[in-house]
Batch of 2 targets.
Target 1
Amino acid sequence: MNLEGMHVMNTDPVCGMAVDEARALHCTHAGKTYYFCGAGCRHAFEERPEKYLDPSYEPSMLGAAFDWLRAVLRRRR
Ligand SMILES: [Zn+2]
């Protein structure tokens, strides 16, 4: 249920930021929908969802940026 004026908040599994479901980028993995603050985080998640779903993973902006950069570099080779 999403009442008018109410935002359903979710947590970006990559960086740990709170994101608004109505506006956030999302992707579906194993039947569950995940929301992201931006394309970088979504991309990082799509590359290695198992890493971000691991309970030992600590969400951080730096980790997400690093993964995204590594993915970009890998593709250029
Ligand atoms: Zn994020």
Target 2
Amino acid sequence: MVLLVHERPDLDAIGSQLGLYYLLKSFDIPVQMYSKDPAPRISHYLIGSDLIHSGDQGAAVVDGCDLLISLDCGSKGRLSLSSEMFEGRKLINIDHHASNRNFGDVNVVDASFCATGALIYDMICSLNLPISSACASALFAAILTDTHRFYKADAAVFRMAADLIDHGANSSLATEEIYGRVSENQLHLLQESLQTLKIRDQGCSSWITVDAAMMQRCGVDYEDTEGLIDYARNIDGIKVAVFMRHDAVDVWKVSMRGQGYNVSRIAESLGGGGHLYAAGCTMHGSQEEICAILQMKVRALLEENV
Ligand SMILES: [Mn+2]
């Protein structure tokens, strides 16, 4: 069996992948991990992150396997795999995105969980299965990041985290490795991207843009843009924050955050998805074109909710 994650995986994807990997390993079940894009640098402290195959190894990894498990991925397209890789294989889809398209032969989708890692933890507990320290560390990272360091986490999430710590997850190591380090280049990017900050809709929406030239000048890649949207989101009075990243000619990755405003409706109307208050999509066109569409949709959402 092969465990898969969405393109440009975050730590919920990688943590779920590693957590499930070590669970299956403890039963001597043959299992491998594959991610089209390499595991992000912030996941490198996790045991086993170097065992995740990536790039053009996909066909070789799934060769001979008859079961695929997709983790934290809302749609089949976001797995970014060629259709041959799915041929003759069953697909299990485990996810917590409300917008999940139920694309698996079996779908375990529950948006009430704060993270896919939390859903896996819940499955492990209900089946009374053992949790190794490698598994606990991976699931802890998934929950820590998808709750934004336990921001808005309820008591059940803290209990889950506490139990994972009891099973060997190192909370301070995780926080240090994931949030405690920043490169000088990332700070340059922060400086440049904040200069693009625009406040619109009478102080209710905030916008940050990062383009390819900026990333090149600062010597950073897409991983380093993680978290920039929070600067826009956290401004007093902001209801909707939008982050736009120019990925290729006429290709834009758009992330949105809502403060009580359902931004996943905008993302879904543009072919993307996500959660109620954190969603994203990919858009095609010039900056002016995509901005015009987004501004119209954000304004409509703000007016509707009044
Ligand atoms: Mn997730």
